[in-house]
Amino acid sequence: xxGYRLERGGALIARxxxxxxxxxxxxxxxxxxxTLASALMANGHAPASRVALKNGEEAAPSxxxxxxxxxxxxxxxxxxxxxxxxxxxxxxxxxxxxxxxPGVMRLCEGLALVQDHGVAPGQxxxxxxxxxxxxxxxLSLHDAGVFVKAVVDTRVHPDRxxxxxxxxxxxxxxxxxxxxxxxxxxxxxxxxxxxxDATSGQLGPNVMRPACxxxxxxxxxxxxxxxxxxxx
Length: 232
Description:
This protein has helices spanning 36-42, 81-89, 107-117, 132-143, 160-168, 220-230, and strands spanning 4-5, 14-23, 26-32, 51-53, 58-59, 70-74, 104-106, 119-120, 125-129, 148-153, 172-175, 177-183, 190-197, 202-208, 214-217. The protein is of the alpha/beta class.
């Protein structure tokens, strides 16, 4: 995932007010109204699923409001001694993002990045969907300045008006297909797209392997776990 700050948009940010912060000792710059996640993605840096602050508290980067001088450290699956001790003292809900392939996020989160923070989730974005809202989201992303390389729709016959709108914008549509796998270990490099028969649940034999650095999906649990098992 290699996001960047869009030239326009971002209802929650004040672009004129710059804020400095650091992650793992590396300096970055964001703007007022960013979260830690949106500021990192605006710098082309995919955030870790969890970070630890100076007081030892852990949180997802999307839940941390950016402050000038903020210091954070990426937390591995095992965590530091302090964070493991803190977790033992309190019950926490499971981390929805932990273990997901790099560069994959929920479609609603990608839209929020664009609309709230003026940040594109990637340079080459592929949208996976199964209903008209996914096509509308792809159109909204494009109109905000995000390069949407393709839309993969499980349905064979999506709404014709939305299909025409995608074609007018030069967005490729793969209908009756699914994203079957992701490629790339530390960064998303591409996906495998295969035909899909909704009646039998069978995947087609042919595979398309477009390059991309961000994949937006409607529901992480449905799409991500199979992709992790199949990824080469």
